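Hi F.,

I've been meaning to write this up properly since the lab meeting, where we talked about keeping a consistent format for the predictions we share between groups. The idea is simple: the sequence comes first, exactly as it goes in, then the structure tokens exactly as they come out, then a line or two of notes. No screenshots and no reformatting. I'm using this chain as the first example so we have something concrete to point to.
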Amino acid sequence: MKEWYLTTELCLLDSMPNSRQAVAAKAIRNNWLRRKAQGKGSAIEYHISNLHEETQKALIERYGTKVEQSNCLETIGKLKEAGEKYREIEYTKPSLFKEKPQKPEPNASAIFEALPVQESDTIDIPEFNVQAAAGAGCLSNTEYQTSVFTVSTALVKSLGLLPEYSAIVFCSGESMLPTMDDGDRILVDTRELTEPVKDGVYVIRIDEMVYVKRLKWNILNQSYSVVSDNPSYDDFEVAGDDLKRLKIIGRAAMVMRSL
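Output, unedited:
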């Protein structure tokens, strides 16, 4: 099966951002193995070894032979080896692998729009009326900006955030105590994140429910444990086809305690 894919092919997959620009921005942030696409002008294509295993499986199902499909894990292993070999090559024609720098775009799966960068001592971060449930989950059919919250530029920089990819939502419920409480503001980093994400606290969507939970990736089971910090609440697991229902809105970078 072919090993290199255009953004137009990748953005059609459920596990990928749903626009060409968002896929390209993700590729830049994660330093994906790439090359100029032959016969496609300035188009860039990316090696399959860059991708999450679920995405690789989807590509094998779509483009692989019957033998490759029936031996999916073996096929993934071979593709990984091919990618490692490409990375070891010292290219003698670097011009084939150069492209214009692309300005990263907002996370295509996020519910927030980017805020222009402001060069001052303070930054206005948009607040949204999303209630990220720290409990049983809550429906969120309206997700519009309601206000702004002013924070210091130094704070944003110290957290490694970019103002244009930052937003604030509110915690609802007590299942994340003592980490966060009902009514607390959550400063969220909405940049597209490498999959699977590192263990930590995230604002996520499962179907129409928006949660703030601790995620733990189980590499053996290929699943996320969705954990409440409050031991009085039950944890649950998202695995298999249910992973397609989970969208990561952003990482909880800081909790602003309500008074």
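Notes:
Confidence is low (pLDDT under 50) at residues 90-118.
The radius of gyration is 20 Å.

If this format works for you, I'll send the rest the same way.

G.
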